[in-house]
Design goal:
Length: 340
Amino acid sequence: MASPYHYSQTIGMFVEFGRGMSNPYDVAPAGDGRLFVLSRSNIFDAPNGGLRIGLMTLDEEYLAEWGRYGTGPGQLVWPNAMVVDPQGRLCISDEWRHDVQVFAQDGTLLACWGGPGTQAGCFKRAAGLAFDATGHLLAVDAGNHRIQKFDPAGRYMTQWGTFGSAAGQLNMPWGIAVDAADNVYVADWRNDRLQVFDAQGHSLALIGSTGTDDGQFRRPTGLCIDQAGHIIVADWGNERVQILQPDGRHLATLYGDATLSKWAAEFLEASPDIVTKRHSAANLEQEKRFWGAVSVRVDHAGRLYVAEHSRHRVQIYQLQDASPAGRGEVQRGTQKGEQQ
């Protein structure tokens, strides 16, 4: 079946600091044509400015950056996920710090929630973040194999999930998303599946199993729900993005369609030797494809953002049809092709 998303553009290129990206792990649309990009960088470049939050427009105007490597207040080490809350603040999880920090859009630190531990409100490798309809933050606690819920002030509310592979159990979960009915979708990373919960944390469905076929996964990371109810999954280990119908059935797969970003084109214009080498390459087709597609996000304009940590860029797609066949509730229990 044809994809409901058509390729639009690519933003980004590798730059250790300044205008560009360095191992982007997540993006957060600001809702006004601006885009925050979380560059996690690597162990060598992160302390020297590679790790940062960049702010840019979709026309690739680089507006600002903030955030630096470190363990002090407002600093980051292994940031994983980033979301904008209902008040316009940026919430960022950190696997190394085991916390969630809350920033104003100019980078001013406003709050810090969590800390290392297994008790309620603490984390062992904080990962995916999402807000429900009431403004509560759902945070993936990957190393403790659970989901925790916080109120807008950062007060712990509840949790669910234990280690395992049965329904209701998780094994190193990563991404998280909430649909219009406040159902919670979790990328159950080491179980190679998605798991759907109701707002109270009761397991509703298991989607997928280990493999490379349509609807199967290898270490799914980010996921999101678009305005049409599609479930969009960064199938990280398979180097692809899968689009599922609202009932969990496979709809389409994206493998990447990148063109040169504006920044990359400007760089090549000033680098004739590199242009010559590119022209001598046997096949540039692979350059278009995803490599390390770790995060997927959607905005209110129907744009889908795919962050690639190994190609240091974000590919953007546009939703064409907001009324897909198969729209409806997620089926309860195990679906075809899923783990039993």
